[in-house]
Amino acid sequence: MNLFNIFDQIMQVDPEFDERVSPRRRAIRNMMSFGKKVSIAAMPFVLSDLFKRAYGQAPTDVNGVLNYALTLEYLEAEYYTKGAAASNLVPSGKPAGAIATIRNHEVAHVAFLKQVLGEKAVSKPIFDFTAGGAFPNVFSNYDTFLALAQAFEDTGVRAYKGQAGLLKGNQVVLTAALQIHSAEARHASHIRQMRKARGGAAADQKPWITGANDSGIGAAVDPVYAGEDNKVQADVDITMLPGIGGKISTAAATQSFDEPLSASAVLDIAKLFIK
């Protein structure tokens, strides 16, 4: 979910992170060429090797960053694992295949972080995917399951926003992180299209976020979409662009950009689902 954000957070607590990683680029490239498309399932283990080479034993502050990310990855991995295993929840065929693929990606992210952290890894929390009773049928109603999956994936995409510029001096890490980011964005889009295919209340669902909350499952997930109703970019109101002012709707303007979420905001969202 937030592997891209990990590197920014680590550079804040360990300014020498770039120097630790940069001399090892050739070794990483020899292990797997980043000039070719790399399987997203394999990517976490490539990054695991990167961290092992950068740190013999990671400093305590870096462990804190990685454990923050691990907590979030635990959440997504368990959610899709429970969903895939729930009786008569996910229809067979393409829907079951899609959920299984996303589950495998998230499980791989957990494995990567646990491998890096070793005995310093935090234990998996006890999750309450009903969010205190807000979603009592999350594992018995397929539409609710997809809607909450959408909220989780949208959280991940927003958490990645704006980090690329901070990683541009670290080409190996940037390449790996962007590939993972791309996979998370595809997860979000695909879940949304799965909801649209269901019709009903989600018939008008777009592959991207519209406004401050387009989940259709109420205020419980409002924190996921806080700020997504912004229509001003670079001090320009998108709905009033010169020459086409008034021709771009507010909805279309909000669809054009994913707004960033801070680490604290993402963690607050995760806490909604932790007992």
From TrEMBL:
Q: What is this protein called?
A: Ferritin-like domain-containing protein
Q: Which InterPro entries match?
A: Ferritin-like_SF
Q: Which organism is it from?
A: Sphingobacterium mizutaii NBRC 14946 = DSM 11724
